[in-house]
Amino acid sequence: MAAAQTAKGPATPEWNQTVTKEPSGEFDAKQLDLIKKMTGYFNDMGDMKGAFEQTSPDGKKLRGWIAVKRPSFFRFEYRRPSRQLIISDGKTMIVQDLDLKTDDRWGLDQTPFKIVMRKDVDLMRDAKVLEVGESDNRFYISLEDKDPGTVGRLKLMFQKKPAMELKEWITTDRQGLDTKVELTEFAKADDLDPKLFEPTAVTLQKLQQ
């Protein structure tokens, strides 16, 4: 997901920590409370839309629009010069390049995003939590799917105030390469067209005008 490429980008020192050992699975009360808050955020999130900036492993930046329809639909529409779309139709993640006329598809359950795209998100149940904590103004968590068939790692960062809000994530692929996605103007959306989650459908850009 916005996704298909990744980046090592600057953030808070805690966010860039490298986990070098398997977690013990033991968390203190404060960490367990943070995991509970993050789980609740996704279960209560509802439909959302906004803008994103993606940084790939080579430092290349791309921008575009994002729409999420809970629980398992999403669309990333890249601004020109890119003509790439990344869409989840609820079961399949579709990566289309309209210039190259390519159409690549993976089962959504093969990506680390299935952890947070479930109808009933439960991070402790479904994820191997590698790291969880907070800085002065952010909460963060690093996790992997417990299913060994799902390759990749997902790091999530939330702002604390004025309300808890997802601000960025980093995906790490099987080669260890990172893609960072930062969100802006990510807000509730009550008017998402279901056709947005069909390949080559109506553009999200029109909804932003």
What structural category arises from helix and sheet content?
A: mainly beta
Helix and strand sequence: HEEEEEEHEEEEEH
The main sheet orders its strands as 6-5-4-3-2-1-11-10-9-8-7
What proportion of the residues is helical, as a percent range? 10-25%
Beta fraction: 35-45%
Number of strands: 11
Q: Runs with pLDDT <50, length 5+?
A: 1-24
Largest sheet: 11 strands, antiparallel
Shape: globular
Q: What's the end-to-end separation, in Å?
A: 24 Å
Mean pLDDT: 84
How does this structure look, described?
This protein has three helices and eleven strands; from the N terminus they run H-E-E-E-E-E-E-H-E-E-E-E-E-H. The chain is mainly beta and 209 residues long. An eleven-stranded antiparallel β-sheet has the order 6-5-4-3-2-1-11-10-9-8-7. The longest helix is centred in the first third of the chain and has 16 residues, at 29-44. Residues 1-24 have low confidence and may be disordered.
